[in-house]
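Worked example 2:
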Amino acid sequence: MTREPDIVERTFKFAVRILKMAGAIPRTTVGGVMTRQIVRSATSIGANVTEAQGSSTKKDFVRRINIARGEARETLYWLRLIAESKLLPAGRLGDLTQEADELVRILTAIVKRSRGV
């Protein structure tokens, strides 16, 4: 299977950064919901990329990477919602938002390359 040299490590480090950020979200009803959602989607990116690396078929590899890409998009949504609702300062989320966007682009490129598009 085609492997992006650092995508496994990059998605792992991204998940760690999200976990640290999530710890700063206020412990309110809304904050709790937002924390659970973003932690779930952000950690799923790396989990699916890791699973893709162990795929036995190209079809399964592409499926897993597509799931990871969807989770990265979802994480972008939660970051935007956290910023707009002012649960955390937008400045604190800028680098995370940029990294999530880059992960979407990288995962999209992996899918296209794997499909021969």
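The chain has a mean pLDDT of 94. The chain is about 80% helix and 0% strand.
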